[in-house]
Structures are given as C-alpha cells and as structure tokens.
Design goal:
alpha+beta, Immunoglobulin-like, five-stranded mixed sheet, four-stranded antiparallel sheet, 11 strands, disordered N terminus, signal
Length: about 160
C-alpha cells in the first residue's frame, strides 16, 4: 500500500487530476461571538446614546495571534443593519471587542456602530459575523418570557 500512494499521486498529477490537500484553517476557528445583548435593560426610547450603547455584541479572538478585521462585518437577520469593522482595526490574541449600537470613540476594546436607533429586535434576532460573503459565525437571541418581563435580553454565544 505504501508503494501505491506515491504512484496514485504521480499519475493524478500527470493527467491533471486534482489531489485533495488539507484545507487551510478557516476563520470560523479564530473568531466567535461572546455576548449578544439584543434587548438592553429599560425602555428603548427615547433613543439616547446611553441606551443605544447598552445594546451590543461582542467578538472574541480565540487564537494566540493578533487578527486584522479588515473586510469583516456584522449584520442582523434581515441584513438591514450592517456594521463594517474599521480597515485598520486589529483584535489582540484572546481579546474581546464590544460593538455598541450607538456612538462613541473607538478603542481597542469598544467600537461604535453610530446608529440612531436600535439594531437588534427585542423579540429575537440573529447576528452574523462575515468575512466578505463568507459566514464566520452566528448567534441567535430568542427571549424567554422572563427575559422579556425583566428586560434582561442577552445571550452568551
């Protein structure tokens, strides 16, 4: 059998057949959502910066390397609200960044979407982390009755 494997590879290459190789590590193994706070405590309105920023999603780098998030985006279930990471943003190894719905000054730990109304549906929504058109991960918040009553609308993804 050991003699046959090199022969099969050589013949495959000679006739132009594709030899399957190990797939490269996919970004899905490098980033994940941590906490998805879709229904912030208290009333949603009036839309103030404080209220908007209590609604957020966290992205965690689960590798030992700093990653560039250039080309990454987050969107809701209906692809209505889309957040694009700054081209120069880098997420440190093992670090988490919180993407707030409202406005603020971007830092390495907090980014701001800049919306003037809530991005996520209190009655349930799905967040998608994308690299271009490739889905990296997703997280779905589905409230239970107690969460709706208590306004504790988050999910640890």
């Amino acid at each position: 059998m050991r003699r046959l494997a090199p022969t099969v590879v050589a013949v495959s290459v000679a006739v132009g057949l594709t030899v399957p190789l190990a797939a490269p590590a996919h970004a899905a193994t490098t980033l994940k959502f941590a906490r998805f706070y879709a229904d912030q405590p208290g009333s949603d309105t009036p839309y103030t910066t404080t209220r908007l920023n209590r609604e957020y999603i966290q992205v965690k780098n689960i590798t030992r390397a700093t990653l560039s998030l250039n080309g990454y985006l987050i969107h809701d279930r209906k692809n209505y609200h889309v957040y694009r990471f700054p081209k120069t943003f880098r997420l440190g190894a093992g670090k988490t960044v919180t993407v707030h719905t409202g406005r603020g000054t971007n830092t390495s730990a907090n980014l701001y979407w800049g919306l003037r109304s809530m991005a996520w549906n209190n009655t349930g929504d799905t967040a998608y982390l994308m690299k271009g058109s490739t889905k990296i991960t997703s997280c779905t918040y589905t409230p239970i009755r107690a969460q709706l009553a208590a306004k504790t609308g988050y999910k640890n993804c």
